[in-house]
Amino acid sequence: MISRRALSGLLMTLVGPSSRAGNEGLALGHCQGSCANVDLPTLGYDQFCRSLFDIAASGRLHAVATGSEIRGEMRSLFRARRLYRPSHDEIRVLWRAPADGFSVVKVEFDLECGVPVRGCLGIPGGEFKGLILLGHGMASTPERCFDDADKDYMNALGKRLCRDGYVVWCPYIIQIGNQESQNNIAAMLASHGVSAHNVSCASLDAGEIVCRKLTGASGLNVGVYGVSWGAFLALHLEAATGQMRPTVVSGYMRDEKKFLMSSVITRNLGVELAAYIHFSNGRAKYAGADLAYLLCPCPLFAEIGNRDGANAMELGRDEKFAEVRSVYASSGHPHLIDIDVFDGVHEVSGKRARPWLYEHLASPLYQQTSRLKGAIAL
């Protein structure tokens, strides 16, 4: 039987022993690549997740969604016709921390459905080149994305983006480091008519509002960078809303049927590996033609480590990307999609993805592609 630690890449989960000393500015401890056991309690995210049950018990959850309209093909996954909007209450600043060439502000605000959102906004010290919405994966945190003293699989991507001149919004994706916690929270929210997936995607999408309120900057070109579970969020957010923002997905490209029939599952039937999205009846929830038809012509770049066991060739990595690429080609947009299979594991690279994203954000094509969203039927 495979150990849970050996499954960390496949589960998109990082757990393990760690020490406490570390970066006082971002309240991070040294974790030697397995950061959940230090970051979640130290940063208060475990208690934050448990507070959702108190919010539900007090009757403060509401099935209200008035944000961007969601395409019909994605509504079963989002459990609503629209995204949740941030409420009209002010954004609460929890702390500010200077960093090397940029600063980080941690904030909290409420969505209209009653679920609170916490996240970090990275602000460059110089001129803003654009805004990037960064979705982290399981067992990581926004803070860890902005610090490279002891990196996890996010490889301090937020810091690198900020130092390149981009404002970065990274919300905390609700979970406490494992699939069980995410599924349990999703089930509790669903019992009150609230979609955990809508909450996560809405939290990511709120970056433009957070950026405008904290920096005063508006009208920035916006890109999306999703990693591991965050890659699902990036794909689904763009497919659901048709905003056509240049998007990078890191650490996800596979055939879900092959994954669910693989030895990873059959040898570990007592471990919860399936996510709540596996139980949705939507056809466009996985990488493939159905999702690609909703995404195209959104500029799309995928990056996968060649030793990423969760997205191995035998799990359909190459054939699923070919399926997505064929949709772009048949639609006349083969130049808007690319992939980098780099030398690495289940982790962020950014070597080709960051220049690709920057180029698309600065290109006149950004405005042309962005205008297409108004012509797409929702």
UniProtKB/TrEMBL annotation:
Note the InterPro entries from the entry. Answer: AB_hydrolase_fold
The beginning of the lineage is: Bacteria, Pseudomonadati, Pseudomonadota, Alphaproteobacteria, Hyphomicrobiales
Q: What is this protein called?
A: Dienelactone hydrolase domain-containing protein
What organism does the UniProt record list as the source? Answer: Bradyrhizobium pachyrhizi
